[in-house]
Amino acid sequence: MRILVTGGAGYIGSHIVKELLEEKHKVFVLDNLSLGHRRAVLVSAVFIKADLSDKKKINQILKKYKPEAVIHMAAHSLVGESMEKPEKYFNNNVLNGLNLLEAMAINKIKYLIFSSSAAVYGEPKQVPIKENDRIKPTNVYGQTKYVFEKLLEYFDQEYGLKYVSLRYFNAAGADLSGQIGEDHHPETHIIPNILKVALGQKKFFEIYGDDYKTKDGTCVRDYIHVSDLAMAHISALKSLTKNKKSKIYNLGSEKGFSVKEILEKCILVTKKIIPVRIIQRRAGDPLKLIASSAKIKKELGWKAKYSDLETIIESAWKFHQKYPRGYK
């Protein structure tokens, strides 16, 4: 197929592009490089520098390249920042996404895979979280993802746009080759921040609160290897084009690890001393998020292959040792 990946120069997007290319698809990457990296895009993909805020240009791109499906990854995703700058998140994650949907409707592109988030659930009443559980985001980022999911419903009803919304839990790790991985500026994700201390780039690893009602006082999260996440997009696309039915799926490993457990495993893998500093909680951080991925396993036959904690951290460590200052 001819597939457009928005945000395809980003962390998760670049891994999806790699998997699509290995499946012999024709891949077009659209990215404004505000957060992504040109070096993360493999050479056999067509790279297009553009911004989704430019409605006219987006329409021209879809007319020119004629993708049969879109994988929409382009978004801001920092929970803390979303609480401080809500207008930035609604503009990019909702309004710019709406520009894409309008252009898809005009050009009669009928399939979209959407990068959603477990943040739509907010503070869950029960874990593991299922797709039909209560939606009540506790931060602006999660709210923007939920608003866009509602837009997808309306575009399905009015224009026949079929979609799969994938609600991620915590993407982590790197491609096993070490060729591509996680490089954010600023970096807010737990594993690369721990590894920066192991590399001597930071003095401390900062833990956002140790007074949560968990076994060790730190937040618990479900971590999924980024390559498992990428393969789920391939499975979702195959199912969508075959069955032509819109769906929502959780994507996680179905296991929960606390911040301190992640830290301990990083110390074992890197064999480094990693000093810690406890700071105040981040606004909007839920206590515990663990996925139920039973639905996507049953309906699409997907399963995580690399999402054990050791493989996640070893693959990330391999990438960060190869690119200690990131792609640049």
Description:
The protein has ten helices and 14 strands. The model has no long low-confidence stretch (mean pLDDT 95). It is 40% helix and 18% strand. Strands 3-2-1-4-5-6-11 form a seven-stranded parallel β-sheet, with helices on both faces. Strands 12-9-14 form a three-stranded mixed β-sheet. Helix 2 (55-65) packs across helix 4 and helix 4 (86-106) packs parallel to helix 5 (140-159). The protein is an alpha/beta fold. It has two domains: 2-122 and 129-171 and 224-251, Rossmann fold, CATH 3.40.50; 190-221 and 254-322, UDP-galactose 4-epimerase, domain 1 (Alpha-Beta Complex).
Tell me the radius of gyration: 19 Å
| CATH fold type of the largest domain | Rossmann fold
**Strand line-up in the sheet with most strands:** 3-2-1-4-5-6-11
Q: Could you spell the SSE succession in H and E letters?
A: EHEEHEHHEHEEHEEEHEEHEEHH
Distance from first to last alpha carbon: 32 Å
Q: Please, how many domains?
A: 2
Instruction: Quickly give the CATH architecture of the largest domain.
Output: 3-Layer(aba) Sandwich
Largest sheet: 7 strands, parallel
Mean pLDDT score: 95
Label the overall shape. globular
- How many DSSP E strands? 14
CATH superfamily of the largest domain: NAD(P)-binding Rossmann-like Domain
Fraction in beta strands: 15-25%
- CATH class categorisation of the largest domain: Alpha Beta
| Helix-strand makeup class | alpha/beta
Spans of 5+ residues with little confidence (pLDDT < 50)?
A: none
Count of DSSP H/I helices:
10
Q: Which range best describes the helical content: under 10%, 10-25%, 25-40%, 40-55%, 55-70% or over 70%?
A: 25-40%
